[in-house]
Recover the amino acids of this structure.
């Protein structure tokens, strides 16, 4: 009986090995999973970095091409318009080389050249301003004087120098003369506003007098300069 008690049980070491092996296997499996995830993330990171390098290079190429296009646009902006002007130069050179002395022929050549130039302007989106009979437009016309005319006030009477537009922008305003206001329109009854300060109209508003708002010596009195308002 004592020998049986001193003999260790053969099942005890096997149970201890099994209980220690289970946590070790679980830890090994977790490490392998983490390693696999890290490897996958590193692969994706390399792919994304490669895409980043490609995108950066493409953006730089786009910037370079844009700079080149802008430089070419500034350098050759009038290339098309210059091509339209070449026939005009050819016609002028042909006219200068003509030694016939025929005035009619020379005039016909100049008219043809003028039509070629008009066609070149039309192709280049350059429009001519010839506003005779139109209302004065300070954005497109430049008035140098006002003249008496039967036309309505502020109407273009004559064009001394034609203006031009390019793409709806004024390249040069037209130099014009404008019709002055008609005296009969400003004083329809024919009364002299200087002698009748109570008369209505632009002059009566500026002219004073005994019954005027400013009295005989006020700023609106007869001593003021009213020449610019007279018809």
């Amino acid at each position: 009986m004592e020998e049986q008690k001193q003999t260790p049980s053969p099942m005890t070491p096997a149970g201890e090995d099994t209980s220690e092996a289970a946590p070790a296997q679980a830890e090994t499996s977790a490490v392998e999973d983490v390693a696999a995830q890290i490897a996958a993330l590193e692969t994706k990171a390399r792919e994304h970095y490669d895409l980043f390098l490609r995108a950066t290079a493409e953006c730089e190429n786009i910037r370079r091409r844009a700079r080149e296009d802008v430089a070419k646009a500034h350098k050759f902006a009038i290339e098309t318009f210059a091509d339209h002007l070449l026939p005009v130069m050819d016609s002028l050179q042909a006219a200068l080389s003509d030694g016939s002395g025929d005035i009619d022929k020379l005039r016909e050549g100049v008219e043809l050249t003028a039509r070629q130039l008009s066609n070149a302007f039309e192709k280049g989106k350059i429009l001519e301003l010839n506003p005779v009979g139109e209302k004065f437009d300070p954005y497109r016309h430049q008035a140098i004087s006002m003249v008496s005319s039967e036309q309505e006030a502020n109407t273009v009477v004559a064009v001394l120098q034609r203006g031009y537009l390019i793409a709806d922008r004024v390249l040069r305003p037209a130099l014009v003369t404008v019709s002055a206001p008609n005296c009969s329109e400003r004083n329809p009854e024919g009364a002299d506003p200087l002698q009748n300060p109570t008369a209505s109209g632009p002059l009566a508003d500026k002219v004073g007098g005994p019954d005027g708002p400013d009295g005989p010596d006020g700023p609106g009195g007869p001593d003021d300069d009213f020449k610019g308002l007279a018809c």
In short: Residues 9 and 151 are 135 Å apart (CA to CA). The chain has a mean pLDDT of 76. DSSP finds six helices and six strands in the chain. The two ends are 153 Å apart (CA to CA).
